[in-house]
Amino acid sequence: MDHRSDRLLLVAQAGVGVVALAIMSLYPPAEGRILLVPVADRDVNATARLALSSGAMLLGAGPLRGSLVVVGSRARLAAQIRPWRTLMLAAPPAGCGTPSRPAGVA
Questions:
Q1: Which of the two ends of the chain, N or C, has the fewest CB atoms closer than 10 A to its terminal CB?
Q2: Contacts 24+ apart (CB under 8 A), 52-55
Q3: What CATH number does the domain containing 39 carry?
Q4: Which residue windows are transmembrane per the record (predicted)?
Q5: Is residue 79 part of a domain?
Q6: Pick the residue with more confidence: 9 or 83?
């Protein structure tokens, strides 16, 4: 094998690793902080109603327009969400507010 194909294989493996880490970091937890990002309709009220109807607690606005950070169950939220209308992502504290205080709580 020549050095060029070795480098190509190494770059491909590194690329797969980076993509896998990105996917794992964005996958929402089974229970906990979840970022809801509406795709079709940017109405934050509709997103809030969807979250509340699944028993989630609203934490506040997310980093994207119309998005919300909630604490709840991924399975219960997924049951309420129409496919391709709202994305559920992990909500890391760095991009989505403080980790310990819900919105409206002093």
A1: C
A2: 53/80, 54/79, 54/80
A3: 3.30.70
A4: 7-30
A5: yes
A6: 9
Of 39 and 42, more confident: 39
**Element holding 73 (H helix, E strand):** strand 68-73
Is 34 among the domain residues?
A: yes
pLDDT averaged over every residue in the chain: 80
The rounded distance, in Å, linking the Cα atoms of 71 and 47 is: 13
Contact 42, 14 (CB under 8 A): no
pTM score, whole prediction: 0.69
96 vs 91 pLDDT, higher one:
91
> Residue 89, Cβ neighbours under 10 Å: how many?
20
60 assigned to some structural domain: yes
